[in-house]
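We treat protein structure as text, and this decision shapes the records that our systems exchange. Below, we set out a record of this kind in full and without editing:

***
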Amino acid sequence: MAKRNVVLVVDDDVVARTMVVALLRAAGLDVLEAGDGTTALKLAVERRPNLILLDLGLPGMDGFDVCARIRARDEIGETPILVMTG
């Protein structure tokens, strides 16, 4: 069986994240959620999503740092990252 497309949605705004997650799930995608940079990095390493939708204004580790840390890792460094921000 083929691997399903997995998207990691990273946004500290619960309403925005919930709306994006609902749309992606309605399109038949598997969705992971993170409300902060630390959780996002952990999920990216553990679950290796096909795409990351990343807010830049996150508490603690911001989106720029998350992106840099992902790019620095061999196993996930090529994962496409789309930045979404208010």
